[in-house]
Amino acid sequence: MKVLLIGYGSIGKRHFEILKNLKIVSQIDLVTKQNIEQVKCFKALGDVSELESYDYFVISSETVKHYEQLRYLCSKVKNKRILVEKPLYDKTHEDISLNNIVYTAYNLRFHPVLVQLKKLLEGEKIYYANVFCGQYLPNWRPGRNYQESYSADSKKGGGVLRDLSHELDYTNWLFGKLQKIDAISTKVSDLKIRSDDIFTAVGVTENKVIVNLTMDYLSKHPIRKLIVHTQNLTVEADVINYTIRTSDKAGTLNETVLDSVDRNYTYSKMHEAIIGGGDTLACGFLEGMSVVNTINAVKFKEL
User: Fold this and answer.
1) Taking the domains of the chain in order of start, what are their residue ranges?
2) How far apart are CA 98 and CA 128, in angstroms?
3) Using CA of residue 16, residue 17, residue 18, residue 23, what is the dihedral sign?
4) Which of 48, 161, 232, 249 is the most buried (most CB within 10 A)?
5) What's the pLDDT score for residue 303?
6) Rounded Cα distance, 41 and 34, in Å
7) Residue 142 preceded by cis peptide, ω within 30
8) With the C-alpha atoms ordered 108, 112, 115, 121, is the resulting torsion angle positive or negative?
9) What is the DSSP-derived secondary structure letter of residue 151?
10) Bridge partners of 59?
11) How far is CA 138 from CA 155, 167, 192, 257, in A?
């Protein structure tokens, strides 16, 4: 399988390392202004003359470039598999004649804790979910000034709402599509950024599940956790610590500790699922658009 990887920043480099370790992948070419030894590189997507020769495309550029790059690919190739890094777009755009199978890179759907939680909730009547996610932005990328990252600039597609949109995706995936939402997205900290650093919302899904969702760049200790109340259970799922705790109506407490995985596991499983085709946990194009539309419905507010 021949792969074209578009964008070679931090996430592009991760995709490259993962893809080159997949046995099915025979060649990876890059679209990047960098010169990478022993790798075929194109300065721009328009410089790639034989797009049809590629089987799989991965768009891992800045979010603001996703739409134009996807539109260009879909005007040149058909019946290919295309993965777009999350979020799918920086904003809602005109429809594209896709002609291809397009996915959004919400790899946390493949995290063992969320996979187990999905199974645990099957058949349960879910009342309410509290979703938390946060990490102090200066600690995200060791060795790099956080002020220079795309996260620090909303014009580059940064900001906590877009950066941590995994939570919006797996909220839709676990509890049904968010329909009604009342939210605040703003900057409250002393971080030297030009984007939102906290997002908090209350919403209702199509399955009548009430969701309270909070994401931030402020948490000095990383947190990624869900607390879910169903008719029969209260479930606490800790994505970082690989634990799932349940309590039933009688107060019986059970805790499951799952085997931890390395930082590339969920990405690798996502690529394998997309390349393999068929039924997959991977986030499809329309699901990715649903997250974009939710983001667009939230307005930045000055406090």
Assistant:
1) 2-105, 108-260
2) 36
3) positive
4) 161
5) 62
6) 8
7) no
8) negative
9) G
10) 6, 84
11) 19, 20, 10, 30
Amino acid symbol at 264? N
Give the separation between CA 149 and CA 155, rounded to whole angstroms. Answer: 12
Contact predicate 246/234, CB 8 Å:
yes
Question: Does this model's pTM top 0.90?
Answer: yes
Name the DSSP class of 194: B
- As assigned by CATH, the class of the 108-260 domain is alpha beta
pLDDT at residue number 149: 84
At residue 297, the 3 state secondary structure works out as helix
Per-residue pLDDT of 138-172, as tens digits, reads 998 888 898 988 788 888 778 888 888 999 999 99
Cα-based distances in Å from 144 to 9, 137, 139, 246: 12, 11, 9, 39
> Which positions ≥6 away from 204 have C-beta within 8 Å?
178, 179, 180, 181, 210, 211
Distances (CA, A) of 109 to 48, 172, 183, 265: 32, 11, 24, 11
For residues 182, 126, 239, 221, the Cα torsion angle rounded to the nearest 10 degrees is 40
Closest by CA to 237, choosing from 148, 157, 120, is 120
**Do 187 and 137 form a contact (C-beta atoms < 8 A)?**
no
* 73/51 Cα distance (integer angstroms): 8
User: What dotted CATH number matches 2-105?
Assistant: 3.40.50.720
**What single string gives the DSSP state of each residue in 66-110?**
HHHHHHHHHHH--S-EEEEESSS-SS--------SEEEEE-GGGG
Start-to-end CA distance of the chain, whole Å, equals 51
Give whole-number Cα distances, 63 to 88, 99, 110, 248, 253, in Å: 7, 21, 22, 43, 43
